[in-house]
Amino acid sequence: MISKNMENALNKQIELEGYASFLYLSMASWCEQQGLEGSAKFMYRQSDEEKEHMMRIFYYINEVDGHAITPAIKQPPLEFESIRSLFTQVYEHEKKVTAAINSLVDLCYAENDYSALNFLQWYIQEQREEEALMRTIIDKIKLIGDGPQSLFYIDKEVEKINVITEKEEAANEAGAE
User: Fold this and answer.
1) What's the CATH number of domain 4-176, 3.40.50.720, 3.30.930.10, 3.40.190.10, 1.20.1260.10?
2) I want to staple 39 with a disulfide (CB 3.0 to 4.6 A). Which of 7, 28, 31, 145 is the partner?
3) Do 99 and 93 meet the contact criterion of CB atoms below 8 Å apart?
């Protein structure tokens, strides 16, 4: 059984995760328009991941006898100043998600909701990893620079991350079977 307070807070988190999915999808499209195929592929994968995060919460709410609400998602930006500003926005959004998860954990303790606390542990680790990854990408962009000639190298660095992530996902899937 879930409290109404926790149900409402988790439904707000669904909306935040859904917005992240749409934001990253918009960013993927922008990257493709800029010829940044590696970055587009990265952002498409991030969009899919955020949708999965949203759905985990959606299923959890219903599992604990709550009512998951399909959120209205506001239109994300369509244009971005530069690849650096794009990844900086991703990093800032991930920090916002982390703060929201931390608030949910605080609510778990306030309501003695140890089931939700246990459920949210996965998100705590996921957010740490997401923030670290975005800082790494931003650091690479700072090292390379983000002028027109640098975009090729930035995109290649992001593609390296794609390859590593795909290998890790394949290994995880093989281990699960």
Assistant:
1) 1.20.1260.10
2) 31
3) no
